Amino acid sequence: MNDLGWIDAVLGSARPQVMGALLRYFRDLDTAEEAFQEACLRALRTWPQNGPPRDAAAWLILVGRNAAMDDVRRRAKQVALPDEAAISNLDDAESELAERLDGAHYRDDILRLLFICCHPELPATQQIALALRIVCGLSVKQIARAFLVAKPPWNSASPAPRRASPTPVCRSRRRARRNVPSGWPPWRP
């Protein structure tokens, strides 16, 4: 392992627990991911000089939470308050669902994170890919390799369908080219 390899191993093993705790705290996957990334950057800056903390996951949760709170406060200062008519409907279905999840019997953050990744409205392949990305921290390339595809369909820039097999005309042209003697056609060197 190189000098920073141990940090990568510690960050990888703490990822599910930290992501689960940050998601429980912020109730927003994007905010939790940003907080985790910021905590990882700070760990890469401080751990090589100071050494690892006693409990790396707790350190990452605390640093990530503080960084995200700073970001939330910064954004709150920049957003103007909406007028009263826009905020008259205060019913929030997501907060009710979140409260039910918190009151349920599964207190484990990683299990809650898995339930969120495996939402029934998502297709099964996307549920698996999302769980591998968020919980396990695999890259898109690693997930594509796990699905045995060269390029992941969720990252595809072109939605155009691909042709399954060449037409018989194309196959016969290829076969004919293989049987052509070298030096043919005569005008080619």
Which labels suit this protein?
disordered C terminus; Rna Polymerase Sigma Factor, Chain: A; mainly alpha; 189 residues; single chain
Explain what the structure shows.
The protein is an all-alpha fold and 189 residues long. Helix content is 61%, strand content 0%. Among the domains are: 1-78, Rna Polymerase Sigma Factor, Chain: A; 118-150, no CATH class. It has helices at residues 5-26, 29-50, 56-78, 93-103, 109-117, 124-134, 140-146, 168-178. The longest helix is centred in the middle third of the chain and has 23 residues, at 56-78. The relative contact order is 0.09. Residues 158-178 and 184-189 have low confidence and may be disordered.
How would you summarize the topology of this molecule?
Layout (H helix, E strand, L loop, with lengths): L4 H22 L2 H22 L5 H23 L14 H11 L5 H9 L6 H11 L5 H7 L21 H11 L11
Total beta strands:
0
Residue share in helix: 55-70%
Class by SSE composition: mainly alpha
> Roughly what fraction of the amino acids lie in strands?
under 5%
What string gives the helices and strands in order?
A: HHHHHHHH
